[in-house]
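hey can u check if this looks right to u? its 181 residues, i copy pasted from the old doc so theres a chance i mangled smth
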Amino acid sequence: MYFLTKVLSTVTIFFLLSLALSGTPLPQEEAPQKSAVEDDLAFAVDLARNRYFDLANDYMELVKKGRLSDQEKDYLTLTNASILKLASEHATDESERMDFYNQAIALFKQFIEYNTHHEEYEAKCLDLAEVHVNLGKFLSDKLKRTEDPTERKQFIEEAQETFRAGVQLYNDTARLLRDKA
């Protein structure tokens, strides 16, 4: 009996050791699986990164038609805002670019307003600040090409307001991160 117990304990130790060394995770250690919606939205972002903004937008519309949990709706909003941010950086038509900036700002603001405890809250505040700064640069560039004094004054005011909003977001987010540390 002693011999059988010794052999079984040795085999058990060998089995557990080989399992640990094989790199195979135990069932409770598996990484959480992404939902199908998250995979679909990641695909839409990849399309946008490759400058297929129309396809990314169409794909987002398809995803939006499905049944989504509240968490997936938040992720959809963030993904849409991120795609619009990318589109605003690459649009050549000025009015289209302005629309992309304004839509991205609206979606980031919507997310931030309702998700103050979300794990990506600070990161999305910084994304919103970046969109504001990019919009301010865009307005400054338009200002340089405008000769009409009335339009120049309007662009100056819009650019200053946009830059202020971006700086305020950067400062607020820095304060939040400092308080968390």
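Residues 68 and 122 are 24 Å apart (CA to CA).
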